[in-house]
Amino acid sequence: MKRIVLFDGDCNFCDSSVQFIIKRDPVAHFLFTSLQSEKGRELSKQYAIPDDVDSLVLIENGKAYTKSSAALRIAKKLDGMWHLLFLLILVPRSIRDGVYDYVAKNRYRWFGKKEEACMLPPPDIRKRFI
Fold first, then answer.
1. How far apart are CA 25 and CA 75, in angstroms?
2. Strand partners for 30
3. What pLDDT, in 10s, does the model give residues 84-124?
4. DSSP strand pairing (56-60 vs 63-66)
5. pLDDT (tens digit per residue) in 55-81
6. Residue 16 above 60 pLDDT?
7. Which long-range contacts (CB under 8 A, 24 or more apart) does 35-44 make?
8. Strand pairing partners for 15?
9. In sequence order, what DSSP letters do the residues of 84-112 get, joined into one string?
10. What's the order of all strands across the beta sheet hosting 3-7?
11. Which of 15-19, 25-29, 124-128 has the lowest average pLDDT?
């Protein structure tokens, strides 16, 4: 079963995060689409994702996960030691999401916004974008 990662297509940090996931997901557990795309808007509506969610969303097993829950569930499927980060799920959600919100709030200032179109990925990676 494929999992879908929705991301902010205007955010350099989000783009880097997608590249990070792709490199550590050789079995292709994840498909990707930007929140701003037609498919992203369709999925947002289908899964009742609030309009103010503008960073990372994971759709898995018919449910949408946001903020730290999405990030940790993604980490759980990555190669290497990254899956150990899922243990942070034991930290109360309010604390996890507080840290997540702080990074998300500052991501444009720290990492910038895309000024031009993204580079087209090679065909083997391109097929993972919906």
1. 10
2. 3
3. 999 999 999 999 999 988 988 887 788 777 665 555 667 77
4. antiparallel
5. 789 999 999 999 999 999 999 999 999
6. yes
7. 35/6, 35/7, 35/8, 35/9, 36/8, 36/9, 36/10, 37/9, 39/130, 40/6, 40/9, 43/4, 43/6, 44/6
8. none
9. GGGGGGGS-HHHHHHHHHHHHHHHHHHH-
10. 30-34, 3-7, 56-60, 63-66
11. 124-128
d(CA 127, CA 73): 22
C-beta separation of 85 from 44 below 8 A: no
Record the tokens describing residue 49, joined without a space: 């994702």
In angstroms, the CA 73 to CA 62 distance is 14
31, pLDDT greater than 90: yes
Question: Which of 87, 82, 94, 69 is closest to 20 using CA atoms?
Answer: 82
The radius of gyration computed from the CA coordinates of the chain, to the nearest angstrom, equals 14
- pLDDT for 33 equals 94
